[in-house]
Design a protein that fits this description.
The complex is a heterodimer of chains A (74) and B (551). With 74 residues, chain A is mainly α. Chain A is 64% helix and 5% strand. In chain B, the strands form three sheets. In chain B, strands 1-2-3-5-4 form a five-stranded mixed beta barrel. In chain B, strands 7-6-8-9-10 form a five-stranded parallel β-sheet, sandwiched between helices.
């Protein structure tokens, strides 16, 4: 239940990392030896996104009232 | 006015001031009573039937109010189910205590069928979907009626001031919004950033509503892997508040990214619950961003105002969420594509670089070689000259040497001349071959090795050559000395064996007439001429006799 923040962090991290890789590639200092490692990482990131976003069936869970009426913190 | 549902007293036009079918005397009495309010004693004198009493109450009521009265109140227990078959509707108008919210006063109201249509039309004309409902504060015109069979006072509504009603709703909202603003709640939920990828959705709606289906269908059609936590809640009526509060609370305990409140699809819209203060506070205080798609035409509800984001319909909310995910998805794909393209570019660029470097190396090498070639050639030329000088110098030395040898050899007798010449020629050939080899290897060196090495080699070769030459000279001298000794020896032996020297000692050579050396007596007979050779001349004679030596 708590991994929401982590997961969102992963989305934004993935995005940041991908952006960073692009910037590194656009910079002049990329070494040809590092290139394939970077591209491999980018592929992993895009795979992560595709799996998370698309490769799952939509699911509907019903939340019943009785779960917890006692500790309403609102 | 339909006569059927109306109780008997109402068959008469109450408001018109007609007098009932009561007896004249009683009527008069009552009228008298009404004129004198202090005549309690008088009342106690006569005994009323209930109908007489009610009639009297009715008269008093009628006389105390104008025919058309405007009243203000909040609609309470309005229920379309209570609409009678003939089409009239009854509910209550109430007044709440501002502080306690308790009902301070209430009165039953009736809208007769004919007026009901008129009033509903008036509402709809003002705003589509706008109708009477609980909680609505209305300003209506009508008259007070007393229904005798039930002893019940009612207010009969003839007309409605729509502007007032709408204004009241707006005012109430405005006041609540202001209150929320002051307590910092109005923008509280808006300050929560919308998640980058809102894939987990806490949904509050009625599961059987069209709004639910619209929302879910839209999400399903997107192709993204949404997951929905559904809280089935009543989205109208007086249970709305309760359902909203627990749903919001429950969803805040899940890992949902956002909370979505939707309703709509139906024509009836009872949005009063979404102007509820507690619902508004719950939305404001939600730790997850709340999105509303409540569907309304008049104005935003307080729930909409306080939500993180308010959209018109459930479909619009679903579209927004999908777009948000899509935006992320597209961005990621886009960056990835750029990375992919960039990779290609880099590799291409790298290849070009390599080619350029290779080209430069080639050019530089060629240029270097050209430069060095000149130097090498220059060096080679000077080396050749030097070598030639050295070699010719050495050759000269050698020639001098051989001349010397020749000179000394010339001293030697004819018998040994050939041998000496042979040795001499051999020596010359060997030396020349030696020099030729050095010359060739030196030339090779010039063409093959670096200047420094070449220099070093040259020095070394020169040393070798001079060493070899001096060795040759040494050996040659040794040889010549030895040869000279030999020659001296030969000279001595020759002198010893020379016949001249023997003859000088008294020996003589005798030749026959045919100039053969006479070695035995059989070569001549007596009478043959012979000559004898002496050291200083010869003599001639004839053989007189010959006597063989006794053995």
């Amino acid at each position: 239940m708590k991994d929401m923040a982590d997961n969102n962090l992963t989305y934004s991290k993935a995005s940041e990392e991908l952006q960073k890789i692009l910037e590194e590639l656009e910079g002049e200092n990329i070494e040809i030896d590092n290139l394939s490692a970077k591209v491999k990482r980018a592929t992993e990131l895009i795979k992560f996104c595709r799996e998370k976003l698309k490769n799952t069936e939509m699911e509907i869970k019903k939340i019943t009232k009785d779960i917890s009426e006692q500790d309403t913190d609102l | 006015m339909s006569p059927r549902p109306s109780p008997k007293p109402q068959t008469r036009k109450i408001g018109d001031g007609y007098v009932s079918s009561m007896k004249e005397d009683k009527m008069t009495k009552k009228l008298k009573l009404s004129e004198d309010n202090n005549s309690v004693e008088e009342l106690s004198d006569s005994i009323y039937t209930i109908s007489q009493l009610n009639e009297r109450i009715k008269e008093i009521l009628k006389g105390s109010f104008k025919d058309n009265v405007w009243i203000c109140g909040e609609v309470y227990r309005y229920n379309l189910k209570s609409v009678n078959a003939s089409g009239y509707v009854y509910f209550q108008l109430i007044e709440q205590d501002i502080k306690t919210k308790n009902i301070k006063a209430s009165i039953p109201v009736i809208i007769w069928a004919g007026k009901r249509q008129y009033i509903e039309n008036k509402l709809i004309e003002f705003a589509n979907d706008f109708q009477l409902k609980d909680g609505l504060e209305i300003k209506v015109q009508g008259y007070i009626d007393f229904y005798s069979p039930q002893g019940k006072v009612s207010f009969i509504i003839n007309d409605i001031d729509v502007e007032h009603t709408v204004g009241k709703i707006a005012l109430k909202r405005k006041q609540l919004i202001e209150k929320l603003r002051k307590s910092g709640l109005l923008d509280k939920n808006k300050q929560i950033p919308m998640p980058l990828v809102p894939l987990r959705i806490g949904l509050i709606t009625s599961e059987v509503s069209a709004g639910y289906n619209d929302f879910i269908n839209e999400l399903q059609g997107s192709g993204y892997g949404f997951s929905v936590y559904l809280c089935d809640a009543r989205v109208q009526g007086d249970k709305l508040e309760e359902d909203m509060l627990y749903s919001i609370a429950n969803l805040n305990k899940t890992d949902a990214d956002v909370i979505v409140i939707v309703r709509g699809g139906g024509s009836a819209s009872d949005l009063m619950g979404f102007d509820n203060e507690n619902v508004a506070i719950a939305i404001a205080k939600s730790s997850k961003p709340v999105l509303t798609g409540i569907g309304h035409q008049i104005d935003n509800t307080v729930a909409d105002e306080v939500a993180n984001m308010s959209l018109k319909t459930p479909t619009a909310v679903a579209k927004f969420l999908i777009e948000k995910v899509q935006e992320y998805d597209n961005e990621m794909e886009n960056i990835f594509q750029q990375i992919f393209n960039k990779q290609g570019e880099i590799i291409e660029h790298f290849k070009e670089n390599i080619n350029a470097i290779a080209g430069t190396i080639k050019t530089n090498t060629l240029r270097f070689l050209e430069r060095n070639e000149e130097k090498l050639r220059g060096f080679s030329d000077s080396f050749k000259i030097n070598s030639r000088n050295f070699i010719s110098h050495t050759k000269q030395n050698f020639l001098n040497l051989t001349d010397g040898i020749k000179l000394s050899v010339r001293l030697i007798t004819e018998r040994n001349q050939q041998k000496i010449l042979y040795i001499n020629n051999n020596l010359v050939r060997i030396l020349e071959g030696l020099f030729k080899t050095y010359y060739i290897s030196l030339n090779n060196c010039v063409n093959q090795i670096s200047l420094v090495r070449l220099n070093r080699l040259l020095v070394r070769q020169q040393q070798k050559i001079s060493q070899t030459a001096s060795q040759i000279v040494k050996r040659l001298s040794a040889f010549i000395i030895q040869e000279n000794k030999q020659l001296d020896n030969w000279e001595m032996q020759k002198n010893l064996k020379d016949p001249q020297n023997i003859i000088k000692k008294g020996y003589s050579l005798i030749y026959t007439a045919t100039s053969e050396i006479l070695k035995n007596i059989d070569q001549v007979n007596a009478g043959d001429n012979i000559r004898a050779i002496l050291s200083d001349g010869q003599i001639a004679g004839t053989v007189n006799s010959k006597n063989r030596k006794e053995e």
